[in-house]
């Protein structure tokens, strides 16, 4: 993925906004807007963002907490929050002008930036939506209509991973199961030894979807699973889907852009969604849904936003750009975010690479101290890694991990999600609890040391999860 500059007349020039405030009425005239300087080229080595500037960008984070959970809600730098606030004020100052003159073209600029970042072919392949949950509803609603309108036969299959995200699974239940589709869940191993295991199990899942002459109408594949977190070999799985005659492939990459390589031509899926608020520094919440133009319904054809407005029927990208009166400011700062990431060496690719290296390093430091193991090979982690907890903590259920998570928050001021992996038959004392650590630009080694030391302290105290029952 290349580091790009946004289009010349990008919505708000990041550097410009930091050197000049708006006039006293707080709103620039349209002509001021056109006069703005062009986007500066990527910085030279000496002008990369400094550690103290990074600290200041995230100074709104609670300083008392070790926040090693970027994966759940992401983060947004204060300079972008300030720009978002400017957009909100522009709307509130003169809503009619904003609505008639600015909103649509500015959303189109954001879409153009995303299109270039993800190497899509056409502008109208990219729609901006709130989040991955909304994108899943759009794709699955289309699947439901195909069942209801008789284009898919009752019993045709939708194949997804057992580790698909909870709300996406609910969406499959709401749209596909209710419409008569058969849902096949591909069970994945954890810990994962190699990508081949996943490929083999996925092939088996497709085969069972095709038994008795049924067809697999949709494969829903995560790019990075949430819990446990593993990078899925999607390119290979998409290729297999094509060979096996699967109608459509939808990649749920809620942890996509800024976390893994996101290149639409390379991946080749029909639909691909990624949040921008997780690993691309957007304010909550903004995501894109890519719909391949050549695909059935792609590029907006038979896809519709679940919130119907007067834009219904004008193509998904346009439908998504107006879902009624609301705050669109998170979508409008996308070009400025690109400028923000370009202040780092290598832009978003550089950030992604360094986050990966650092999270692996931190994971290895923790397993060494706790005498445990990582949940998958390092090449299958992105900016998050699963780290086994000491067996003696006695993690034995989903409720244990919730309680342990709360304990780490309340007693040690650490934000960390934990996964319970039920023991398999015949296993004696396996590692049943795994923390999912993330690394983002604001993190410091001390955050992970605090986690390491907290867990070691619990071990020394002879702590057992069952002691939290009372
Ligand atoms: C794989 C996956 N899909 C979907 C989602 C939902 O994302 P959002 O809440 O932004 O819609 C998540 C959230 O973490 C996720 O990890």
TrEMBL record:
Residues 1-53 are annotated as: Disordered. InterPro entries: Aminotrans_V_dom, PyrdxlP-dep_Trfase, PyrdxlP-dep_Trfase_major. Residues 104-447 form the Aminotransferase class V domain. Keywords: Pyridoxal phosphate. Signal peptide: none annotated. Gene3D superfamilies: Type I PLP-dependent aspartate aminotransferase-like (Major domain). It comes from the Eukaryota. SUPFAM superfamilies: PLP-dependent transferases. This is Aminotransferase class V domain-containing protein. It comes from Microthlaspi erraticum.
């Amino acid at each position: 993925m290349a580091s790009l500059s946004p289009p010349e007349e990008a919505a708000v020039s990041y550097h410009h906004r930091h050197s000049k405030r708006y006039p006293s009425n707080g709103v620039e005239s349209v002509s001021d807007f056109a006069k703005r300087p062009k986007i500066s080229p990527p910085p030279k080595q000496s002008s990369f963002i400094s550690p103290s500037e990074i600290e200041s960008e995230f100074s709104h984070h609670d300083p008392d907490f070790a926040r090693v959970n970027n994966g759940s809600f992401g983060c947004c730098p204060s300079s972008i929050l300030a720009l978002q606030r400017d957009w909100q004020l522009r709307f509130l100052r003169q809503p009619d002008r904003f609505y008639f003159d600015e909103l649509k073209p500015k959303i189109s600029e954001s879409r153009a930036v995303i299109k270039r970042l993800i190497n899509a072919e056409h502008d109208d392949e990219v729609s901006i939506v709130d989040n991955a949950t909304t994108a899943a509803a759009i794709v699955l609603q289309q699947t439901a209509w195909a069942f209801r309108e008789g284009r898919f036969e009752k019993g045709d299959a939708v194949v997804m991973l057992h580790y698909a995200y909870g709300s996406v699974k609910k969406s499959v239940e709401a749209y596909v199961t209710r419409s008569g589709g058969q849902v096949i869940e591909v069970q994945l191993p954890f810990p994962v030894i190699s990508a081949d295991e996943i490929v083999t199990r996925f092939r088996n899942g497709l085969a069972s979807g095709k038994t008795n002459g049924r067809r697999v109408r949709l494969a829903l594949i995560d790019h990075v699973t949430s819990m446990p977190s593993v990078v899925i070999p999607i390119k290979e799985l998409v290729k297999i889907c094509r060979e096996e005659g699967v109608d459509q492939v939808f990649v749920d990459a809620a942890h996509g852009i800024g976390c893994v390589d996101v290149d639409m031509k390379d991946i080749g899926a029909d639909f691909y969604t990624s949040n921008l608020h997780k690993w691309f520094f957007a304010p909550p919440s903004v995501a894109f849904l890519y719909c391949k133009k050549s695909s059935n319904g792609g590029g907006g054809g038979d896809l519709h936003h679940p919130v119907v407005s007067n834009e219904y029927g004008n193509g998904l990208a346009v439908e998504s750009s107006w879902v009624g009166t609301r705050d669109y400011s998170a979508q409008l700062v996308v070009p400025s975010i690109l400028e923000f990431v370009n202040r780092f060496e290598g832009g978003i690719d550089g950030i992604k690479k360094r986050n990966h290296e650092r999270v692996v390093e931190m994971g290895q430091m923790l397993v060494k101290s706790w005498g445990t193991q990582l949940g998958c090979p390092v090449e299958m982690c992105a900016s998050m890694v699963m780290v086994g907890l000491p067996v003696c903590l006695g993690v034995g259920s989903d409720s244990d991990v919730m309680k342990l998570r709360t304990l780490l928050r309340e007693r040690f001021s650490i934000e960390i999600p934990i996964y319970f992996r039920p023991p398999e038959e015949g296993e004696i004392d396996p590692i049943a609890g795994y923390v999912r650590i993330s690394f983002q630009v604001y993190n410091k080694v001390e955050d992970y040391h605090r986690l390491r030391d907290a867990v070691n302290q619990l071990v020394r105290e002879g702590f057992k999860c069952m002691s939290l029952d009372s």
